[in-house]
Amino acid sequence: MDSESAKTRFLTAIGHDMRQPLHALLLYLSALERRVKDGEAREILNKADRAAQSLAGMIEGLIQLARLDANKVEPELERVSLKALFDDLIASTPHAAADTTELYVHSDPVLLETIVQQLVANAAKHGGGSAHLSAEEKDGAVEIKVRDSGPGIPTEDQERIFAEFVRLNGSDGGLGLGLTIANKLAALMNHKMEVRSAPGQGATFIVRAERA
Description:
19% strand
């Protein structure tokens, strides 16, 4: 077994073995929340719930990465409305805003939404807390942009942030997989991804897809 296959099997095993007890833990915490009335105890319970939710997100990231590395993700390309995609994300993400767009791209709607969700989550966590979505046609393709107002990314780090388990100095929490997964999904659909940034000027992540 080569090292890549071993890593995939390891990540899959970890993810599936931890999923069930963690799901049970989240149910127990939810049941407790309905019963605890004391303010201090509820605050402790809320912190425990946030920690468990964070762990659940890490496990799902490991499973998704393992599926990608095992070539078990099959994109189904179709005509995708960016207006509908942006509207869905804005409705579920209070810290995100979007420009109006009537553009369509040739992509997998589920996988493309996952990519943009990862970029929005990255902006919320490391990019100043907010994200701005926009899209524009350029050279026959469509550039989907997620801009944040964070501290920016030094030039020497702009390639390695897409590598697995990379967390820049000062980053806290998470496994450093969000951008890796987004980049792998983009490559799977022949979309191009890049980041434009400078220290102190925020960052703009760009997904370039074929116009439909």
